[in-house]
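Appendix C: a fully annotated inverse folding record. The material below is reproduced so that readers can follow the format used throughout the book. The structure is listed first as tokens, followed by the designed sequence.
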């Protein structure tokens, strides 16, 4: 998949056009979460299975300057139509369309959404919380990118019994290998994995993955690719991560 020659890496409407095709093919409902800066923010769901099965949560595009996450999720979806039909999914393809269009981390208010998911009165995280708090979530995958990264890595939040991130990273080490650093953002890393079983109480703002864990999801994985690497490689890495993560968790 080549994006840059067509200048479409930050084309939100083209991204959603392709998600509409996925929704039709996979029999998913494409619904409006809310609207921000003149753009509708969408989510997709297997409507007939809501309430019957624990759902897989997938999201991307929280930070607009991390485009490979949004496109990688789309590429995965386009190649897993049967899985989408047969499974139970809740998908947020791009939570920050304004940021994606302008290639910026923040939203249209100049705010970092990934420090606001705990706020019930926020115009974006508020509706998001209403939906996610009423779902039974089995696993949550949050896709991101990191300017300073030297490879891929994962924040894993869950019990030790469910620790799977190392095996997932090993399975999707192509086209980008795991980050070799021993510490990232002041936290200890082992083979590209930052493990958490608890959350610090003094955080000023809560990211998506932590709030999902607080809402009852037993395992949240935040995947990061190095945003200075090839866009096509990063897109492929995100798609490979989703494939490997669901294989390890859903078949275990």
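Designed amino acids, in order:
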């Amino acid at each position: 998949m080549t994006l840059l020659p067509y200048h479409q890496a930050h084309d939100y409407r083209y991204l959603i056009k392709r998600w509409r095709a996925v929704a039709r093919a996979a029999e998913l409902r494409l619904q409006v979460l809310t609207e921000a800066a003149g753009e509708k923010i969408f989510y997709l769901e297997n409507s007939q299975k809501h309430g019957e099965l624990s759902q897989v949560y997938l999201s991307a595009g929280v930070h607009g300057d991390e485009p490979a996450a949004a496109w990688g999720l789309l590429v995965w979806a386009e190649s897993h139509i049967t899985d989408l039909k047969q499974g139970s999914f809740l998908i947020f393809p791009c939570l920050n369309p304004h940021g994606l269009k302008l290639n910026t981390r923040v939203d249209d208010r100049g705010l970092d959404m990934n420090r606001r998911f705990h706020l019930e009165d926020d115009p974006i995280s508020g509706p998001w919380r209403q939906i996610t708090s009423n779902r039974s979530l089995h696993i949550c995958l949050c896709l991101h990118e990191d300017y300073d990264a030297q490879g891929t890595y994962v924040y894993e939040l869950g019990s030790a019994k469910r620790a799977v991130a190392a095996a997932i990273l090993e399975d999707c080490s192509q086209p980008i290998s795991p980050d070799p650093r021993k510490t990232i953002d002041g936290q200890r890393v082992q083979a590209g994995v930052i493990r958490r079983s608890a959350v610090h109480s003094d955080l000023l703002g809560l990211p998506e993955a932590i709030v999902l864990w607080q809402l009852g999801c037993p395992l949240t994985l935040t995947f990061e690719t190095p945003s200075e690497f090839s866009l096509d490689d990063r897109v492929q890495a995100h798609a490979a991560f989703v494939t490997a993560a669901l294989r390890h968790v859903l078949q275990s």
